[in-house]
Amino acid sequence: MHLKRRLVVLGIVSIVFLTTYGQKVNQPNILFISIDDLRTELGAYGNSQLITPNLDALASQGRLFNNHFVQVPTCGPSRACMLTGQNLKKVSDISHSHLAKQLTGKPESEYPETFVHHLKRNGYYTVGMGKISHNASGYYKGKLELPNSWDEFVYDPNNPWKQGLLHAYANGRTRGKGERQPYEFLNVKDEQYPDGMLANDAVKTLERLAKNDKPFFMAVGFFKPHLPFCAPKKYWDLYNHDDIKLSPNPDLPENVSNVFLHDSGEFFGQYEHPEKGGAGKRLSNAYAKNVRHAYYASVSYTDVQVGKVLNKLKDLGLDKNTIIIVWGDHGWHLGDHTIWGKHSSFERALKSTFLIKTPNIKKPGVSTDALVASVDIYPTICDLAGVKKPIGLDGQSMIPILENPKAKGKDIVHSYWRNIISMRDSRYRMAIFKKDGKEELMLFDHAKDPNETKNIAEEHPRQVQKFKKALNQIDKGFLTN
């Protein structure tokens, strides 16, 4: 093809692309919903036990990602990677306060602190509420955690929970002395827990934004199903307790070193239980079922709050030009491998809910198996908004997958926790532990063993070497001590 003709064709493609996915003339609004500790437990993911009609309906209108993986299996660092589009650089960065320490109180620099800041600089009115970075109030030591990202952060310092929103029980109670139960279901209204109040704030904010001439980016960070698993009792009553299934992999995986396991310190250390487990020690089936029931009920409670926001968006007519993104900040073990919580390099902790709905999405409701990562969200949002991407991002745009659910994603997604790097391709997951000259490996074949019950690293040295070679190619120096 002659150069002139090629340039004309590329110009036409660019015009069509920007018309579909947002442009300066008519930039789309963006509603970003983060949900804490939400593993791939939705009806849309094939779990028929979960009652999540609002998120399921959204998935039927957009693109559900079956293989989305976070970079870090804990809240603060995972959100830091998502917001900055960059991997962490060293082990000490794996801290809830990492992003706050980097940004809070610092003057604005030329490079945007987050993709929210970048959108703000490019014509968006940005509003945040709930848990977006890490602190549930959006503040760190009395100052905004993301000082240059928000035009407005919705937070009432006089709320009944004060700074205890994340670990809230009903009616202003928070975890502390005398309040350490892992779950609670009382006959109260939705608004008597923080997420119910947050949904109401989101609805009121949308009503204001509908009158604004600027395109908006609104982020709503729901707290549940983070511990403690709390919600009005009607959500517990949605489920038949006898039907709750136990984990399909409740025992330790075979041939796995203890360095990859943990004693569920958050779950057992911060909450009181009638019995206590740990690495290799299972809870009784009866208590395990109680906890799983509580998690499911919390998910259903959050689903209803999400529905309130989505319904208001539609009632206002904003859905016709609004991109909706739902992101779970990491997964969560529900007794899998005898673990209760996150903080692991297994699939359960690293895979989380992720879906995108655009007004003109092609093949809506068709999910994708493409491998994607949380660091890919930043460049994708830039493309959706028609905003030039800053240099230095570690992620890649997911636009091809939104165009075609069969499009290829990443070859490998890598994640990390302390001195462990975990790598996932379309079939295998390998994790490698390195510290003080010691190395441990675990490898799982997801085609034959999707629940990661047997470490086959010794049986597949070629696959191990393939991952090690890939790690050398992508390692930019992160996770140094």
From TrEMBL:
Belongs to the sulfatase family. Keywords: Calcium, Hydrolase, Metal-binding, Signal. Residues 28-387 form the Sulfatase N-terminal domain. Pfam families: Sulfatase. The keyword Signal applies. This is Sulfatase. Its cofactor is Ca(2+). It comes from Seonamhaeicola marinus. One of its GO terms (cellular component) is cytoplasm. InterPro entries: Alkaline_phosphatase_core_sf, IDS, Sulfatase_CS, Sulfatase_N. GO terms for molecular function: iduronate-2-sulfatase activity; metal ion binding.
